[in-house]
Amino acid sequence: MFSINTVILISIIFAVAYFPRARCWFSSFRPQKKLHSDVQHKLALFIPARNEGKAVIPLFESIAAQTYDRSNFDVFVIVKDPEDEVYKYAETIGAEVFCDQTQTCKGDCLDFGFNKIIHTYPGKYEAFVIIDADCVLKPTFVEEMNNAMAGGADIINGKKLVRNYFEDNGKNSNIVTQCNGLIWTFMDDMGNRWKSDHGYTTMTITTGILISARLVEKWNGWIYKSTLTEDMELQRDCCLQGYKTLYYSYAQLYMEEAPQLSETDKRRTRWMTGLTHADFIYARNLLAKKDVHSIIDNYFMFCLWIVYVYIASMFVIAIGNIGSCVFQIIRFGMFDWSLLTVSAVALAAIYGIFFILTAASLIVAYKDMKLPRSQRLKVLFVHPVFYMQYITIVARAIIDRREKSWDEIARVETVETTDKVL
Questions:
Q1: Which of these, 142, 137, 139, 112, lies nearest to 127 by C-alpha position?
Q2: ∠ CA(182), CA(78), CA(107), 5° rounding?
Q3: CA-to-CA distance for 129 and 142, rounded, in angstroms?
Q4: How confident is the model over 301-327, as pLDDT tens digits?
Q5: Whole-angstrom distance, CA of residue 215 vs CA of residue 128
Q6: Which of 35, 161, 228, 308 has the most CB atoms at less than 10 Å from its CB?
């Protein structure tokens, strides 16, 4: 049915189409230009903390350890339960807690909290910094976010690292956290860095992100609530509206990865469902823009679909040839090894592109991963299989437009406090 030449031809077309994105992978090898702000801006740190309990303590400790003048930033925490124990932990850093019992997604939480702040303290803050409750900030995080504002962007993302390597002697670091943690390298140093340096829209993950008060006031809170991935809606609207985005690698924070594959799959399913749905929502208006900058920006916005099409093509080849082989056995009593060989090559091609991506990410993230060489080698071969799980996740997301529920993700309990390990 399909031949090796078909696999080769489609692979060449894919390589050419994806090359502009792949050439961004190693941009972070050059030091990013450092920015400095002569002004200490008044900032509001915003922490969604629905049913987080003690999980917020390391974050609060890292906030207390910030080098930025404490009089120039305030901390706000949003909870869902009026009896949440987070209230007493917030007192330790002088944070103000708001309770939104009606929230059904993070977008609701952001809308409620931003509205509360801008109407309670009108004109007080120049920017809002969103930080998820399971994060830990480097001591210079807020200071570097303030410096990044000198770049004139309305939206600034910091660099995301994986907490699990650095706490409790890596007790909660396993092959699941190591594989899933590479996603932040793909997004930031292998993607956002090049796009930021060249003036294109970065991927705006809504943790470790600064948003100017100008936009929050324009939105009168938060307007991206059509999916459970409010950050993907924000990114696409930034591209549509021309909001300037910036990735600043010197503002660093640590993200927690769940050691259980089941919890990781919850996150991946929710995120990919929202991402694909955001594409459906914004594609028509984005593709209507025909200037050169917008065309290039759209390429980076939608280039994941090149990967989707390539993988789908390889699966059609693999399944088609297997079906032909079975048909020939039933109809003619003949077994054609060549058909199965092509199927194997098509599936190997999928593994191969993820293997190349993994190898590149391990090089780029070398200093950010606290792993022995043997474990890095294990990640090199296991991660492509881990990443191939996205095939079924994305397929379901494209076919089934129903939003997933905003499930809680189990948090990792740590023994050591932030200042001891970071």
A1: 142
A2: 60
A3: 9
A4: 999 999 999 999 999 999 999 999 888
A5: 10
A6: 161
- Predicted TM-score of the model (pTM): 0.90
Q: Is 46 or 333 the better-scoring residue by pLDDT? A: 46
End-to-end CA distance of the chain: 57
Quote the tokens at residue 217: 């006031």
Q: What dihedral do alpha carbons 252, 253, 259, 263 form, nearest 10°? A: -110
What is the SS3 assignment for 125? coil
Element (H, E) at 74: strand 73-79
Identify residue 259 by its one-letter amino acid code: P
* Paired sense of beta strands 127-130 and 43-48, if any: parallel
| Distinct helix (H) and strand (E) counts, the chain | 16, 8
Tens digit of pLDDT for each residue in 245-267? 999 999 999 999 888 888 888 88
Task: Please spell the DSSP secondary structure of 243-265, one letter per residue.
Answer: --EEEEEEEEEEE---SSHHHHH
Q: Closest by alpha carbon to 226, among 385, 377, 111, 146?
A: 111
| CA–CA gap between residue 263 and residue 276 (Å, rounded) | 20
pLDDT one-digit tens code per residue, 364-397: 999 999 899 999 999 999 999 999 988 888 888 8
Please determine, for residue 344, whether its predicted confidence score (pLDDT) is greater than 90: yes
Strands laid side by side in the 155-162 sheet? 96-99, 73-79, 43-48, 127-130, 209-212, 155-162, 245-255, 136-137
Pairing assessment for the beta strands 155-162 and 209-212 based on DSSP bridges: antiparallel
Q: Which residues, in sequence order, are CB contacts of 339 under 8 Å at separation 6+?
A: 1, 321, 322, 324, 325, 328
CA–CA separation, 29 and 194 (whole Å): 11
**Gap between the Cα atoms of 378 and 374, Å rounded:** 6
How distant is the alpha carbon of residue 186 from its chain centre? Answer: 9
